[in-house]
Structure formats: structure tokens, C-alpha cells
Amino acid sequence: MYSAVIAAAGRLDAQTAQRFGSDIKALVRIGDKTLLARLVDALRAVSEIGRINVVGPRAVHDSTLAVDEWIEERESGEANVVAALESARGERTVFAAADLPFVTGEAIAGLLRRVADQTACAYPIFTRDEFEAAFPGGRSSFARLADGEWTGGSVLVIDPRLVLRDQALLRRAFAARKNLVALASLLGPKLALLYATKRLRVADVEARLGALAGGTFEAIRGADPALAMDCDEEGDFAYSRAHGRGAPAP
Fold first, then answer.
1. CB atoms near residue 172 (< 10 Å)
2. Residue 217: CB partners within 8 Å, gap ≥ 6?
């Protein structure tokens, strides 16, 4: 069995919050449900997942949702991730951000089926073509590596014990997550040079992350791109509302 932890503390700027009805991303409604409710329902539909814990402000604590533990948000996003992973039970945990408008139980179950038993951290990745075939116009920015243009998911499978061993590295990685140059630098000078010279490949990143974490890191191919269609900016929410009324995917 897996535990699941949800990070639900992300905020929106004032203009976007006014347009979509909440300054908390997890509480924006897409169709008839909030983003948080959609994710909880999807996780509950996966038979391998037992406990579900949510880290977020008091406003997201909703007794009608099938959540086992509500954890008060901490002072920063990095601290929220640590609190979420510390609350996990079991060796491997499904970690998810609460901003996935098209997530389904089958999408999460499909990811779990692709994760090998010995993998300490599994992260779904998608080529530009794979993502755009599912969500045309849903994203404009992709990481350009030597073996393609890639984007990643907002759901991963992780052994929290490995990550929590080096919380300083975890906090640095979280802070750098939106900046490809910063992420490349975090992986060390060799990989930073490969990235700068357009020679960095997915396998290089897998090997380096595994060495840093002290366990096997695997980039998962073939999962549902719904795991990567997240809502970071105003345009993402507008796209999701336009395409997602009553449907699991556009």
C-alpha cells in the first residue's frame, strides 16, 4: 500500500484570484469541483493508496473530503514539502500538487504500474509531442535537452526517507524547481556544463539524482499527460475551465 500526500498551499496573485474566486489554487473550481476535491477523488479511486494527508491553510480543510489528516501549512513552500513527507507512512509515497484539473484515478494507477519495486523516486516525463497531443495549447515552455523537449508531472512516487535525509538539498531543489539553469547547477558542474552545451540527456539526470539521493531515480515514460497539465498561471486556469466542463480531459 502507498500513502499519499498533497501539497495544497499554493497561492494566486490578486488579479487571478478575483477572476477565479479564490487566492488558493487548490480551491479554484473547474467544472463542479475544486482542484483539491478532484485530486482527492482521483487518489481514492486507486486501490493501492491508503492514507491521504493534505498540507495547506485552514481554508482548504474540508470535512466532506475523504482525507485522513489535515496538516497546517508551514512558513514556506519548502517547509510544506518537508511536513508533507514527514507525515507519510510506508516506504513509498505518492506526492501530488493540488493543481491538476484533469487528473483521474486511472492516470495515477497507470503511473504506479510503471514504477519498479526497487525505484526510490519515480517522476513522469512527457515529450512536447506527447503533451500537446493530449492538451493542445496547454503549455508553451518545455525543457530542451539533447534527447528532446520535455515536461514533467506534478505527481511523483517517492521514498520519503531518502529525501528527508538531506533536507537542505530538498529545500534547494524546491526553490530551483521553476528555473532550468538553477536546477542544472544544483546537479553539479558536470551536468551544468552538459546542459549549457546542449548535451544533457534524461539518463544523465536520472543517474545524478540517484547518486544524490542514494537510491534509484527513474523518469517514467508512457503515463497519462494529465499528470503534467497543472495550473500555475491565469492562462492555465482559463484553459482548464474552457476545456474541462464535465469532462476528465479536453
1. 16
2. 119, 120, 121, 122, 123, 206, 207, 209, 210
Q: What is the largest CA-CA distance in the chain?
A: 51
* pTM flag (> 0.85): yes
Third-level CATH fold of 2-243: Spore Coat Polysaccharide Biosynthesis Protein SpsA; Chain A (3.90.550)
CA distance 194 to 229: 28
pLDDT digits (tens, 9 = 90+) for 132-177: 999 999 998 899 999 999 999 999 999 998 878 887 777 777 776 6
Closest residue by Cα to residue 161 from 99, 77, 89: 89
Alpha-carbon distance 33 to 20, whole Å?
13
- Spatial neighbors of 63 by CB under 8 A, at least 6 apart, are none
